[in-house]
Amino acid sequence: MYLDSEKKKEIFGTYGASNTDTGSPEAQIALFSYRIQHLTEHLKVNKKDHTTQRSLKMLVGKRRRLLDYLMRKDINRYRALIAKKELGIRK
Fold first, then answer.
1. Residue 74: which region, alpha, beta or left (left: phi > 0; alpha: psi -120 to 50)?
2. What is the Cα–Cα distance from 25 to 22, expressed in whole angstroms?
3. CA atoms of 77 and 89, how far apart (whole Å)
4. DSSP calls for 42-84
5. Phi and psi dihedrals of 38, rounded to 5?
6. CB burial of residue 15 (10 Å; 0-12, 13-18, 19+)
7. How far apart are the C-alpha atoms of 28 and 69, rounded to whole Å?
8. How confident is the model at residue 91 (pLDDT cuts 50, 70, 90)?
9. Residues contacting residue 62 through CB under 8 Å, at least 6 positions apart
10. What is the pLDDT of residues 6-54, one digit of tens each?
């Protein structure tokens, strides 16, 4: 499996307040970004996989809504998250 519990703890530890901080917008956005990168690579190989294509679009929408929420609530946290290039978020 591409996303095991150790990888999740690593992502939450890097972007959240701790390894168990699964609820912060930064941690969720980082997790969505990791999943989006994985699905993008999958779709490069399997171009006709329409179910994965739909899932990817839904994930991008969820991430966009979380980013909009974070921008409304705390612009400094939003800017700090966007500045991290490893997430692959352009703005």
1. beta
2. 8
3. 14
4. HHHH-TT-HHHHHHHHHHHHHHHHHHHHHHHH-HHHHHHHHH-
5. -65, -45
6. buried
7. 12
8. low
9. 32
10. 999 999 999 988 888 889 999 999 999 999 999 999 999 999 999 999 9
